[in-house]
Amino acid sequence: MTSLPPLTKKQREVLNFIEQFVQENGYTPSYREIAKGLGLSSPSTVYEHVQALCEKGVINTGDDGCARTIELVESEELSPMSIMLPLAGLITAGEPIEAVEENEAMAIPANFVVDAENSYVLQVKGRSMIEDGIFDGDFVIIERNPSPRNGDIVVALLDNQYATLKRFYREANHIRLQPANSTMQPIIIKGDLNIQGIVRAVIRKFSH
């Protein structure tokens, strides 16, 4: 481990907030939560501080140089490394809803992510996956993968605009998207289906 380079008061506050947030909640905050917690004007202000931390070598970004995939460098003053992934919006675990992108990001533990460049986060809305332990309000880490195996939990895009979260099964002459809720019926797809990715991890935020 190495020591942190000199930081401004606000940069130190951003890092301290993330550290304290993790200790209290067990997960890392989004840009919006950092902004709210520090009384900053918007998530874009947090982005500016993150960029400054990048320039000081505290944070490593992806090859594109932007703060969409961020790796916090371990030091004597930081908790285990985290990665910032795009928070792409809501995903339904019930009736399909229109896919939305929010252009925000969320920091998560690095050991939750296999392929950061091809991963993103969605927030779950609905109860169709509760028997698999995925509840309304949870966050799911998605890895882009157009070729899921039977039994994988996938993000499926219906009619190229409505996203849903279900278990994937390719059967004789159709694809079955199976909810994990015994009160709900599967979605049967005859023809092509756009698979956006597979679920790699679930993050639950507990309210105080």
TrEMBL record:
<keyword id="KW-0804">Transcription</keyword>
<keyword id="KW-0068">Autocatalytic cleavage</keyword>
<keyword id="KW-0234">DNA repair</keyword>
<dbReference type="InterPro" id="IPR036388">
    <property type="entry name" value="WH-like_DNA-bd_sf"/>
</dbReference>
<keyword id="KW-0742">SOS response</keyword>
<dbReference type="GO" id="GO:0006508">
    <property type="term" value="P:proteolysis"/>
</dbReference>
<dbReference type="InterPro" id="IPR050077">
    <property type="entry name" value="LexA_repressor"/>
</dbReference>
<feature type="active site" description="For autocatalytic cleavage activity">
    <location>
        <position position="166"/>
    </location>
</feature>
<keyword id="KW-0227">DNA damage</keyword>
<feature type="site" description="Cleavage; by autolysis">
    <location>
        <begin position="93"/>
        <end position="94"/>
    </location>
</feature>
<dbReference type="InterPro" id="IPR006200">
    <property type="entry name" value="LexA"/>
</dbReference>
<dbReference type="GO" id="GO:0009432">
    <property type="term" value="P:SOS response"/>
</dbReference>
<dbReference type="InterPro" id="IPR006197">
    <property type="entry name" value="Peptidase_S24_LexA"/>
</dbReference>
<comment type="function">
    <text>Represses a number of genes involved in the response to DNA damage (SOS response), including recA and lexA. In the presence of single-stranded DNA, RecA interacts with LexA causing an autocatalytic cleavage which disrupts the DNA-binding part of LexA, leading to derepression of the SOS regulon and eventually DNA repair.</text>
</comment>
<keyword id="KW-0805">Transcription regulation</keyword>
<dbReference type="InterPro" id="IPR036390">
    <property type="entry name" value="WH_DNA-bd_sf"/>
</dbReference>
<dbReference type="GO" id="GO:0006260">
    <property type="term" value="P:DNA replication"/>
</dbReference>
<dbReference type="GO" id="GO:0003677">
    <property type="term" value="F:DNA binding"/>
</dbReference>
<comment type="similarity">
    <text>Belongs to the peptidase S24 family.</text>
</comment>
<dbReference type="GO" id="GO:0006281">
    <property type="term" value="P:DNA repair"/>
</dbReference>
<dbReference type="InterPro" id="IPR015927">
    <property type="entry name" value="Peptidase_S24_S26A/B/C"/>
</dbReference>
<dbReference type="GO" id="GO:0045892">
    <property type="term" value="P:negative regulation of DNA-templated transcription"/>
</dbReference>
<dbReference type="GO" id="GO:0004252">
    <property type="term" value="F:serine-type endopeptidase activity"/>
</dbReference>
<keyword id="KW-0238">DNA-binding</keyword>
<keyword id="KW-0235">DNA replication</keyword>
<feature type="DNA-binding region" description="H-T-H motif">
    <location>
        <begin position="31"/>
        <end position="51"/>
    </location>
</feature>
<dbReference type="Pfam" id="PF00717">
    <property type="entry name" value="Peptidase_S24"/>
</dbReference>
<keyword id="KW-0378">Hydrolase</keyword>
<dbReference type="InterPro" id="IPR036286">
    <property type="entry name" value="LexA/Signal_pep-like_sf"/>
</dbReference>
<dbReference type="Pfam" id="PF01726">
    <property type="entry name" value="LexA_DNA_bind"/>
</dbReference>
<feature type="domain" description="Peptidase S24/S26A/S26B/S26C">
    <location>
        <begin position="86"/>
        <end position="199"/>
    </location>
</feature>
<comment type="subunit">
    <text>Homodimer.</text>
</comment>
<dbReference type="InterPro" id="IPR039418">
    <property type="entry name" value="LexA-like"/>
</dbReference>
<feature type="active site" description="For autocatalytic cleavage activity">
    <location>
        <position position="128"/>
    </location>
</feature>
<keyword id="KW-0678">Repressor</keyword>
<protein>
    <recommendedName>
        <fullName>LexA repressor</fullName>
        <ecNumber>3.4.21.88</ecNumber>
    </recommendedName>
</protein>
<dbReference type="InterPro" id="IPR006199">
    <property type="entry name" value="LexA_DNA-bd_dom"/>
</dbReference>
<feature type="domain" description="LexA repressor DNA-binding">
    <location>
        <begin position="6"/>
        <end position="68"/>
    </location>
</feature>
